[in-house]
Design goal:
- There is one protein chain.
- This protein is of the alpha/beta class.
- The protein contains 5 helices and 5 strands; from the N terminus they run αβββααβαβα.
- Helix 4 links the parallel strand 4 and strand 5.
- One of its GO terms (biological process) is protein transport.
Length: 128
Protein backbone atom coordinates (compact mmCIF):
# COMPACT_ATOMS: atom_id res chain seq x y z
CA UNK A 1 0.00 0.00 0.00
CA UNK A 2 1.18 3.41 -0.83
CA UNK A 3 0.77 6.19 1.64
CA UNK A 4 -0.72 9.38 0.36
CA UNK A 5 1.49 12.32 1.22
CA UNK A 6 -0.34 15.46 2.10
CA UNK A 7 1.18 18.66 0.97
CA UNK A 8 1.74 21.12 3.76
CA UNK A 9 0.08 24.37 2.93
CA UNK A 10 2.30 27.40 3.13
CA UNK A 11 1.29 30.42 5.13
CA UNK A 12 0.79 33.49 2.96
CA UNK A 13 3.51 35.99 3.84
CA UNK A 14 2.03 38.84 1.84
CA UNK A 15 -0.38 39.75 4.63
CA UNK A 16 2.43 39.83 7.17
CA UNK A 17 4.56 42.03 4.91
CA UNK A 18 1.64 44.43 4.47
CA UNK A 19 1.14 44.72 8.23
CA UNK A 20 4.84 45.39 8.84
CA UNK A 21 4.86 48.02 6.09
CA UNK A 22 1.79 49.77 7.54
CA UNK A 23 3.39 49.81 11.00
CA UNK A 24 6.54 51.35 9.51
CA UNK A 25 4.52 54.11 7.83
CA UNK A 26 2.59 54.74 11.07
CA UNK A 27 5.76 55.19 13.14
CA UNK A 28 7.32 57.45 10.51
CA UNK A 29 4.26 59.70 10.52
CA UNK A 30 3.79 59.63 14.30
CA UNK A 31 7.43 60.56 14.87
CA UNK A 32 7.17 63.68 12.73
CA UNK A 33 3.95 65.11 14.20
CA UNK A 34 5.38 66.32 17.52
CA UNK A 35 6.78 69.84 17.70
CA UNK A 36 10.51 69.65 18.59
CA UNK A 37 11.65 71.03 21.94
CA UNK A 38 14.54 73.41 22.50
CA UNK A 39 17.91 71.67 22.08
CA UNK A 40 19.54 73.05 25.24
CA UNK A 41 16.87 71.58 27.53
CA UNK A 42 17.74 68.82 30.04
CA UNK A 43 14.58 67.07 31.19
CA UNK A 44 13.64 65.98 34.70
CA UNK A 45 13.62 62.18 35.23
CA UNK A 46 10.71 60.28 36.81
CA UNK A 47 9.80 56.62 37.04
CA UNK A 48 6.13 56.79 36.08
CA UNK A 49 4.18 59.52 34.35
CA UNK A 50 1.15 59.66 32.10
CA UNK A 51 2.42 59.79 28.54
CA UNK A 52 1.28 62.98 26.85
CA UNK A 53 2.84 64.64 23.83
CA UNK A 54 4.30 68.02 24.84
CA UNK A 55 3.60 69.92 21.59
CA UNK A 56 1.69 72.76 23.28
CA UNK A 57 3.71 72.79 26.48
CA UNK A 58 5.35 75.74 28.19
CA UNK A 59 9.13 75.18 28.20
CA UNK A 60 10.93 76.55 31.28
CA UNK A 61 14.73 76.78 31.01
CA UNK A 62 17.25 76.49 33.85
CA UNK A 63 17.67 80.27 34.03
CA UNK A 64 13.92 80.76 34.45
CA UNK A 65 13.08 82.07 30.99
CA UNK A 66 10.00 80.57 29.39
CA UNK A 67 9.27 79.74 25.76
CA UNK A 68 6.32 78.40 23.78
CA UNK A 69 6.90 76.90 20.32
CA UNK A 70 10.31 78.58 20.15
CA UNK A 71 9.09 82.07 21.11
CA UNK A 72 10.06 83.70 24.40
CA UNK A 73 7.17 84.18 26.86
CA UNK A 74 7.34 86.93 29.48
CA UNK A 75 4.88 85.57 32.04
CA UNK A 76 2.74 82.46 32.57
CA UNK A 77 -0.39 84.51 31.88
CA UNK A 78 1.02 85.38 28.41
CA UNK A 79 1.29 81.67 27.70
CA UNK A 80 -2.32 81.06 28.74
CA UNK A 81 -3.49 83.93 26.55
CA UNK A 82 -2.13 82.05 23.51
CA UNK A 83 -4.11 78.87 24.28
CA UNK A 84 -7.71 78.21 23.40
CA UNK A 85 -10.26 77.39 26.13
CA UNK A 86 -9.92 73.61 25.64
CA UNK A 87 -6.13 73.62 26.12
CA UNK A 88 -6.39 75.81 29.24
CA UNK A 89 -8.08 72.95 31.09
CA UNK A 90 -4.86 70.96 31.24
CA UNK A 91 -1.68 73.01 30.93
CA UNK A 92 1.66 71.24 30.45
CA UNK A 93 5.06 72.50 31.63
CA UNK A 94 8.36 71.06 30.38
CA UNK A 95 10.98 72.17 32.95
CA UNK A 96 14.74 71.96 32.65
CA UNK A 97 16.27 69.55 35.18
CA UNK A 98 18.41 72.41 36.57
CA UNK A 99 15.39 74.66 37.26
CA UNK A 100 14.93 75.14 41.03
CA UNK A 101 11.76 73.52 42.36
CA UNK A 102 10.71 76.78 44.04
CA UNK A 103 10.57 78.52 40.64
CA UNK A 104 8.67 75.60 39.10
CA UNK A 105 6.07 75.69 41.88
CA UNK A 106 5.75 79.47 41.52
CA UNK A 107 5.12 79.12 37.77
CA UNK A 108 2.53 76.41 38.43
CA UNK A 109 0.74 78.63 40.95
CA UNK A 110 0.82 81.57 38.53
CA UNK A 111 -0.75 79.39 35.84
CA UNK A 112 -3.50 78.30 38.24
CA UNK A 113 -4.19 81.92 39.23
CA UNK A 114 -4.31 82.91 35.55
CA UNK A 115 -7.03 80.34 34.84
CA UNK A 116 -5.45 76.92 34.23
CA UNK A 117 -7.60 74.15 35.72
CA UNK A 118 -4.77 71.57 35.94
CA UNK A 119 -1.01 71.92 35.59
CA UNK A 120 0.95 68.86 34.44
CA UNK A 121 4.74 68.61 34.55
CA UNK A 122 6.17 66.68 31.60
CA UNK A 123 9.45 64.85 32.24
CA UNK A 124 11.84 62.67 30.28
CA UNK A 125 9.98 59.43 30.93
CA UNK A 126 6.77 61.02 29.61
CA UNK A 127 8.39 61.82 26.25
CA UNK A 128 9.43 58.25 25.41
Amino acid sequence: MLRVRRKSEREPTTALINIVFLMLIFFLVAGTLAVPLDGDLTLVRTAELERTAPGDALVVHADGRMSFRGQVIGAPSDYLARLDAENRERVRIVPDAELPAIELVAIGRALRRAGAEAVVIVTERGLE
